[in-house]
Design a protein that fits this description.
The two termini are about 15 Å apart. This protein is globular. It has an 8-stranded antiparallel sheet with strand order 1-2-8-7-6-5-4-3, with helices on one face. Strand 1 and strand 2 form a beta hairpin. It has 3 helices and 8 strands; from the N terminus they run E-E-H-H-E-E-E-E-E-E-H. By secondary structure, the protein is α+β, with helices and mostly antiparallel strands. The protein has one domain: Alpha-D-Glucose-1,6-Bisphosphate, Chain A, domain 4, CATH 3.30.530.
Length: about 160
């Protein structure tokens, strides 16, 4: 069973908000990194969820594991929407990518760190820069719950039950 800790923290007073989510999965670090990045399309909740920019056209999602690589969706009609770009990639311990909602004035950053814990891996996600993007405090705080819901299927994919194998 994976443990989970999450939170939304104000940094430098009430100005900057940072969303943090931490989970532990029963996979070796390289496998946990690979599932999060190259395997993102296997677990990211796209269809029928609020976690896609494609709505009913939601189909596939990709995270390219190289600096300058894209984080993007490909909709069922072939159109693509770029969510952000990879700005740091250090397999299997760290990936950082930007996230730009069409309604924001600037991009935010998502940093995901992978640390070995015995035979498991701790995954620490930090989403920051909401203030610079002009995201209202209430909306930024909602991303804490959003990341928890997005990461739940990752945990399930990383920790298959014996009946799944």
């Amino acid at each position: 069973m994976a443990d989970s800790a999450h939170g939304v923290q104000a940094v430098r007073g009430d100005e900057a908000l940072t969303v943090r989510e931490s989970i532990t999965v029963n996979r070796a670090i390289a496998d946990a990194f690979r599932l999060f990045t190259d395997g993102i399309g296997e677990w990211w909740p796209l269809k029928g969820s609020p976690f896609s920019y494609g709505g009913d056209r939601a189909d596939k999602i990709f995270l390219e594991t190289k600096v300058g690589g894209r984080f993007y969706e490909r909709f069922s009609d072939g159109e693509e929407f770029e969510v952000g770009r990879v700005i740091a990639c250090e397999p299997p311990t760290r990936i950082v990518f930007t996230w730009k909602d069409p309604n924001w004035k600037a991009s935010t950053e998502v940093e995901v760190r992978f640390s070995p814990v015995g035979n498991s891996t701790r995954v620490d996600l930090e989403h920051r820069g909401f203030d610079a993007a002009g995201v209202p405090r209430e909306e930024a705080m909602g991303w804490g719950d959003g990341w928890k819901m997005v990461l739940a299927p990752y945990v399930e994919a990383a920790n298959p039950t014996k009946t799944d194998r």
